[in-house]
């Protein structure tokens, strides 16, 4: 035996680990102190030495009679009934088995990870029953208790011993050494078609001793952790389990409650689905409460949507059916800094946040915050939905909000709101560099908060686009909390973005709140400006009566204050309102009032240029094209000198229209193209579409139908993206 061992370069310890017996036994056999080893031991040695044929027969000496096959066992818990949804995940698991023949040297290992209550065990057990006939040699299952409320995590050695017992190994033949036990376990599974379900694993180290060494086995591991180590070093295939879709959630409730009962109250089902946010455990608990009480589903929906009451409703009376309790088991595994960040995420007003925003929320440096976010992500207590952007399930956020202390929440709220307000106003200033200084000055940043570094207009536009939902949530939070300064500043900071990107509804919502805030702030000029901008939002929505009411209120306040330039600004707004209603003569009159006001007050050149262009625009709409050219050329010269790109583009567009009406098509095309390029680069969606449509009209009039079609098609794409239905229909008619 010693010769065979040395031929393979094995130490006694290596051989003992390979066949699952003790090193002392190997030493005694080689020393002759055990003259007749057990037949099973002799066969294991022959397997380890790779002996076959006559050489094996000689070595075994009659001990090589076929060993009894391990008992075919199925330790799987009962299948889940009813089971709803998860078609995609089941297909992915099936595909792993389909591809097993292409990986002959290793076992198939899959990790199924996700947040608490998302249905990992249910899916694993259901799939295991579904494919049981593909594993005729046994289906093993163990709950590793990785997140047990008692804190008693199963030792992997205990799981191995349990499997050895299940596989028929007599207690006296189970080695005392844990590594030897694992070796014996792997040897018993060699060449056998066995499915092993390792449920509720804590980490990779708990799982590794239970992984088989044979390619004929398959392993499915569930965990609240992502088990990245197994994926990196053991070749595990990850499947991240998310929440159920609204359709799958409805299917689950239909299965649990019965289609007849659900159909009797169709209006309640969407509210229940939304409150449970796709979490299978929450949906199951809600269905159980409805089944037990027999109360109308509308009553359950009302309970679930009562502020601060949702987690109380999602408690069926024991730890395994209490959403709050199962969340707590994951929370208890966190380090103190990660637990603090988890709590603070419940304070964040929006749906997701960037790493820098999370750092502001926590008042920590970005590198440390990134590390803590990684901990939360690995624990499935947060999700990195895009690189560097994180969110939480709604019920997790509700749980986090319950845990955070009031003083801790107040400081975090101050930091995150300041981060959003300061960055939004900085981005607005980049989008519109010539905008007048903000009338409600920004205060100092709280310690731990920071402004997002934004370089240039395109970066500002990109940041506002990504953060738009969060900024609206921050504005709504500021309103609810009575933070009037932040309410006004967010309306101001978002205004250019809302106008250029055609968000009139959001523009109206923020400025309506700002009107109330301005009354509380009582800063000269702020109220008049706020009414004026709200009027602009109403104009964008086509609500002329409300727009006129706001603009006239602004005009009254400017007159009372003796602000002639403010009056001029309002007259320009009134000119656009008159244009909206088709009153071009009245529109020109207001534009000329604005020009006179600016000239008398020696207003800034940019205001003068804007009024010159507006007068020119209405002149050409009324047919006085030569006069229009004169006014617009003066405006263009001022704007070119000042370098105000949005004003340059507006003036080029006006000149293009006048040149077209005069039949000077080459000049018209040149001016329209230049206007389109600037509007598009600066993110002016509606104005880009308008200039493209006018460019198409010019090409049509010049006898260039293909060029006209190209411009109209681009205009149609922009209008469609902006949901401008009426304009879309007009363009479709031009294209047909």
UniProtKB/TrEMBL annotation:
Alphabetical list of SMART domains matching this protein: HTH_XRE, TPR
Record domain HTH cro/C1-type: where: 1-56
Provenance organism: Actinoplanes couchii
Keyword Protease: no
TPR repeat feature ranges: 649-682
Domain of life: Bacteria
Keywords: TPR repeat
InterPro entries: Cro/C1-type_HTH, Lambda_DNA-bd_dom_sf, NB-ARC, P-loop_NTPase, TPR-like_helical_dom_sf, TPR_rpt
Source lineage: Bacteria, Bacillati, Actinomycetota, Actinomycetes, Micromonosporales
Protein name, as recorded: HTH cro/C1-type domain-containing protein
Pfam families found in the cross-reference section: HTH_31 (PF13560), NB-ARC (PF00931), TPR_12 (PF13424)
